[in-house]
Amino acid sequence: MNRKIISLLILFIFFLISCENKINNKEVDEPDEDADTVQELLFNLKVEENNKNVLSCRLTFSTADKKKTFVKYYSTNHAGYKIAEETEKNDHYFFLWGMRENLNYTIEIYSDEETPELLATTEFHSGKIPSSIFPLLLVANEKESVQQGFLIVTQQAAPDEERMEPIVFMVDTDGFVVWYFEHYLPGFSLLTDPSYRKKTNTMLLGIQKWQMEDVLSEEGIEIDMEGNIVWKSPYIPWTLYGETTWHHIYRALDDDTLLLVRSQYDDRVISDRIVNVDRDYNELWSWGYFDSPDYFDTVECSEMSEYWCDWTHNNAAIMLKEENILYFNSLWLGFFKMDMNTKEILWKFGKDGDFTMLSEHPFPWPANTHDPKFFDSSRKRLLFFDNGITERFYSRIIEYEINEETMTAEITFEYDGIDSGHGWYSYAGWGDVDYLENGNFLVTKGLVDDSQNSTIFEVTRDGRIVWEIYTYQEEGFMIELYNTEKFMPPLEFLK
Predict the structure, then answer these.
(1) Element at 459 (helix H, strand E)
(2) How far is 443 from 88, CA to CA, in rounded Å?
(3) Are 389 and 456 members of one domain?
(4) How far from each other are the two terminal CA atoms of the chain, in whole angstroms?
(5) Number of other residues whose CB lies within 10 A of the CB of residue 110
(6) Are residues 3 and 152 located together in one domain of the fold?
(7) Phi, psi (5° rounding) for residue 288?
(8) Distance set, CA 158 to CA 164, 313, 477, 482 (Å)
(9) Would you say 370 and 316 are in contact if contact means Cβ atoms under 8 Å apart?
(10) pLDDT tens by residue, 306-317
(11) Looking at the 3D structure of the chain, how many domains does it have?
(12) What pTM did the predictor assign?
């Protein structure tokens, strides 16, 4: 081989080696730079199902630099939500909830900046709701007029209570179950009187136990949205309507103490005692109807059974400790205001009470009321779910403007649904009504006979039903609702 050919071969081999080095640098070095960039943005991404509530999951990830992030999660059938962090951090945790059952959700993670950057995308498939949640039927939904939020529901049944399990769940405005919590206690029990606490993002629940009185157990719990029990009441032996347990009200006050109503007996006469306790159940304040014999001087049995005389049937209380004022409501006797220091009754509202009615109406006063609410802190507007058990034999919601200086009252709103075919009768004294932020009223019909449906509906001030949902009903069996509550969860609703 001559010298020229050898030189060309050497040049060719050198060229190949040079090209290989360039290709290797391009194929290896550049992906490494991309990998470093990805590594810098987000790593350790993990999605974990919440076995306490399969309509939710836990999302964790890390970032090399401290970042404030937000997450969007949605499906093709559900617009979904956005959750944002408040502070910058390296290790990030999000609890994603409010999902509907059996859907594929896309989860997008963004840097929370003026121009958000998509950091990663992953997925989660929601599970199936428990069979203990009886189906609901949405029959009206004028979305532009409905208060956004989640409805908190606890089920009760008539007449077969043994078909019930202690479960609470949430329903969105489209009628889908989006959250639930199951509890267990020995003996038949139900979760009741749920209330969402905004400042702690928790829910307080009372428990009704109907069997096994001698078994020590809690009568109240507080849970977070993940379904973790963050507090339990002390263990006591009890069943519903015993003197040591609560009925009708199990609520937390602003100072984190508890407001309860307990039964009080005198032979066969059953009355009530309103009690404020701390979280260890130390009694801070209490009063019962038997404590004011000069004012409540006549015992009349509105309901007399073989075993007891139902005298007062107290079903609501509003305690304003900073003002030393208590409002309380008896199904049979009326609505009262009390000075907590002296325990003096300041006034009674209702028929044969202390206010003069300015409105002309065949039934101007509420009869056998439930769940009174004030519109705001001025306490000039007063709202009742009015059962009408002993007077009209149809139910209604009614609002009054009250003036404590002139001791006068006038009717400002009434809805009974009779003219529109939506009338109802909660003959057993159940029922609930709440003010909503958009000006509407949320009404829970309560216990009705089997010719009607137990429903929850939202009605406007001009008497239009803009949202309504029916509970489950079959021959000889119906799901009845004692009360419900709608709240806006700490989620941003996507559109």
Answers:
(1) strand 455-459
(2) 42
(3) yes
(4) 78
(5) 18
(6) no
(7) -130, 160
(8) 10, 21, 6, 12
(9) yes
(10) 678 899 999 999
(11) 3
(12) 0.89
Domain boundary among 100, 125, 150: 125
d(CA 424, CA 446): 10
C-beta atoms surrounding 7 within 10 Å:
10
In this structure, of 17-21, 41-45, 344-348, 376-380, the range with the lowest mean pLDDT score is 17-21
DSSP codes of every residue in 383-412: EEEE--TTTTSS-EEEEEEEETTTTEEEEE
Asked if 145 and 460 touch (Cβ cutoff 8 Å), the reply is yes
Q: Are residues 109 and 223 in the same domain?
A: no
> Is residue 33 domain-shared with residue 58, that is, in the same domain?
no
Task: Return d(Cα 212, Cα 419) in angstroms, integer.
Answer: 47
In a shared domain, residues 488 and 403: yes
Q: What is the pLDDT of residues 8-57, one digit of tens each?
A: 444 444 444 444 333 233 233 334 444 444 446 799 999 999 999 999 99
List the beta bridge partners of residue 168: 154, 181
Domain finish residue from 125, 153, 173 = 125
Query: Which of 286, 265, 269 has the alpha carbon at shortest distance from 277?
Result: 286
Mean pLDDT, the chain, whole residue set:
89
Q: Position of tokens 């391009």?
A: 26
Domain that holds residue 62: 43-125
From 226, 203, 184, 217, select the one nearest 51 (Cα to Cα). 226
| Residues 271, 260 share a domain | yes
Helices (H), 242-397: none
The span from the CA of 486 to the CA of 469, in Å, is: 13
Please tell me the distance from the alpha carbon of residue 19 to that of residue 377, in angstroms, as a whole number: 81
Residues 182 and 92 in one domain: no
